[in-house]
């Protein structure tokens, strides 16, 4: 009891001797308490139907109606379900349509420059067209303006499942239908989302190799793929679900490269 009284007396004397420091400490504690309360309130708000509708409306407004989300549910931001996402362009309309999406990811990994997704499942992905590049009066378009996403992040999708991925003949040389179940790693998301790179990747003839790449791969996949591709004579090439493991070196537009290098591996694990 005596020790507690002595501690209280010393504390009171310190406050009287250093009133400015005491006020600063009280102010910081109050600030952190208010910050926690505000963040908790915001977190609770975005996990209500009103909050999710607000997020959807803000995304649509800030992208000038170029991204439209319908049916956003789940636990924000880490465990989400989305009925449909449409990516639009004023010239071509809907160029990418994704339906029945389930996303489980780790937002905190972004602090380290990584996009880590535990699970990404989509019932249907329709790649109808590539949006045209922005054209300036001077004819000079910066790298950032040619990118659909300007985020230089490494991507690790630990489980990717797409029941039907459709790539139209406006994007590739023929209509392609694919089902995917596996894991994906991307070295640089910005490079993958570059319009020139995507166009070259879809339109050029790949060059297959059986040995590992001699430099870091831009894209890696390990899992199972099945699908079909339409032929010019009206038939199609098809393949059942097979295990695949491959790495991809994308065409380097700044080096006038026109080849995709695909390195095949054994098994379905990265």
Using brief descriptors, characterize the structure shown.
270 residues, alpha+beta, 5 helices, 40% strand, transmembrane helix, membrane, transmembrane
Give a description of the structure.
The protein has 270 residues and is an alpha+beta fold. Among the domains are: 40 residues; 132 residues, no CATH class. Strands 1-2-3-4-5-6-8-9-10-7 form a ten-stranded mixed β-sheet. A hairpin with a 3-residue loop joins strand 1 and strand 2. The protein is elongated, with a radius of gyration of 26 Å. The termini are far apart.
Write the layout of secondary structure elements.
Blueprint: H1 2-17, H2 19-46, H3 49-62, E1 67-75, E2 79-89, E3 93-106, E4 114-127, E5 154-167, E6 176-186, H4 189-192, H5 195-203, E7 206-209, E8 219-230, E9 236-249, E10 260-264
Parallel strand pairs: 4-5, 7-10
Antiparallel strand pairs: 1-2, 2-3, 3-4, 5-6, 6-8, 8-9, 9-10
Main location: membrane
Membrane topology: Single-pass membrane protein
Transmembrane segments: 21-46
Quick structural gist:
The protein has helices at 2-17, 19-46, 49-62, 189-192, 195-203, and strands spanning 67-75, 79-89, 93-106, 114-127, 154-167, 176-186, 206-209, 219-230, 236-249, 260-264. It is an alpha+beta fold and 270 residues long. Among the domains are: 24-63; 66-131 and 151-216, no CATH class.
């Amino acid at each position: 009891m005596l020790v507690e009284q002595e501690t209280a007396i010393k504390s009171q004397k310190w406050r009287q001797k250093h009133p400015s420091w005491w006020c600063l400490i009280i102010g910081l504690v109050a600030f952190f308490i208010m910050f926690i309360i505000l963040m908790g309130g915001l977190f609770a708000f975005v996990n209500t139907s009103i909050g999710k509708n607000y997020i959807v409306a803000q995304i649509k407004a800030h992208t000038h109606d170029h991204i439209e989300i319908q049916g956003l549910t789940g636990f924000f931001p880490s465990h989400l379900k989305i009925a449909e996402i449409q990516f639009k362009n004023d010239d071509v309309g809907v160029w990418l349509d994704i339906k029945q999406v389930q996303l489980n990811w780790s937002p905190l990994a972004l602090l380290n420059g990584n996009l880590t997704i535990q699970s990404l499942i989509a019932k249907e992905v329709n790649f109808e067209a590539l949006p045209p590049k922005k054209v300036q009066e001077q004819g000079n378009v910066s790298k950032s303006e040619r990118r659909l996403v300007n985020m230089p992040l490494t991507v690790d999708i630990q489980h990717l499942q797409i029941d039907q991925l459709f790539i139209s003949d406006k994007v590739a040389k023929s209509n392609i239908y694919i089902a995917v179940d596996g894991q994906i790693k991307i070295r640089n998301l910005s490079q993958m989302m570059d319009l020139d790179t995507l166009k070259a990747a879809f339109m050029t003839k790949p060059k297959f190799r059986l040995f590992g790449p001699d430099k870091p791969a831009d894209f890696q996949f390990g899992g199972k793929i099945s699908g079909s591709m339409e032929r010019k004579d009206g038939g199609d090439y098809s393949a059942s679900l097979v295990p695949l493991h491959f790495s991809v070196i994308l065409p380097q537009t700044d080096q006038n490269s026109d080849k995709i290098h695909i390195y095949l591996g054994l098994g379905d694990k990265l």
